[in-house]
Amino acid sequence: MLPLGRSGLGIVIVLDNITLRHGTRVILSGLSGRFEAGSQTALIGANGSGKTTLLRAIAGLHPLAGGRIDWDGFHRRDIALLAQGSHLDRSFPITCRDVVALAATRLGPFRSIGKDKLAATRSALQRVGLGDMENRPIQALSAGQFQRVLFARTIVQDASLILLDEPFTAVDAETTHLLLSVIQDWHAQRRTVIAVLHDMELVREHFPHTLLLSNQTGHWDAMPEPGLQAA
Question: What is the pTM (predicted TM-score) of this model?
């Protein structure tokens, strides 16, 4: 695998007999497998099967009840998690540009934004079709527009592992097509993408690897691409 810039995209994520709980309830048990560097995987399963929890565990945000996850040299800054937009608070008075720029700086809200980071922010907003809305408050956005902002934020994070939790919920077909093209860009750059999805037609058309969570465990399936090893 060839690395890409800072991110070092030769990293494999290995799940080694992991168990996940919510309180006392076991939601996943004994799950093992791996996500190859540069792979694009759909995480599927019924509601409550543990898809979001598994994403959060891979991101280091949910503790393991058993087993381990090996990131093969990953640092937290190499991981970008795009959470479900419907679960995020949009009441704070902040613009589209500021939401994206804060991810670009990685320094917090009270640090200045350099010219290069501002340029990256504007480029990302252009990429998702919001170049003329950088000063619009996020409260004034539709669900689809806000999802585009979250994708722009993820673009500027420049992560080698990108985790997407239901990225196409409440967006129209045009926005879905645009956001899929962003995902394909990441895939072409050999970034590793794992996405929680429900639309099986979309999964079949655009995601060569799948992990189905069912009955507290998982089933891996893949259609290998040239140069990729199936999970």
Answer: 0.86
**Planar angle of CA 107, 110, 111, nearest 5 degrees:** 50
Dist CA 94 CA 26 (whole Å): 38
Beta-bridge mates of residue 44: 212
What domain range is 206 assigned to? 5-222
User: Considering just the CA atoms, what is the radius of gyration of the chain in Å?
Assistant: 17
Is residue 230 included in any domain, yes or no?
no
* E strand or H helix that includes residue 126: helix 115-127
Q: How many separate domains does the chain show?
A: 1
Residue with tokens 């999970």: 231
CA-closest candidate to residue 2, choices 201, 189, 224: 189
pLDDT tens for each residue of 96-118: 999 999 887 654 554 556 788 88
CATH code for the domain in which residue 192 is found = 3.40.50.300
Q: Does residue 202 form part of some domain?
A: yes
Does 48 reside within a domain? yes
Cα distance between residue 193 and residue 13, in whole Å: 11
* DSSP H or E segment with residue 14: strand 13-22
Strand order in the sheet with 40-45: 79-82, 161-165, 192-196, 40-45, 209-214, 217-222
Three-state SS string over 137-175 comes to EHHHCCHHHHHHHHHHHHHHHCCCEEEEECCCCCCCHHH
Question: pLDDT tens-digit profile of 156-172?
Answer: 999 999 999 999 988 99
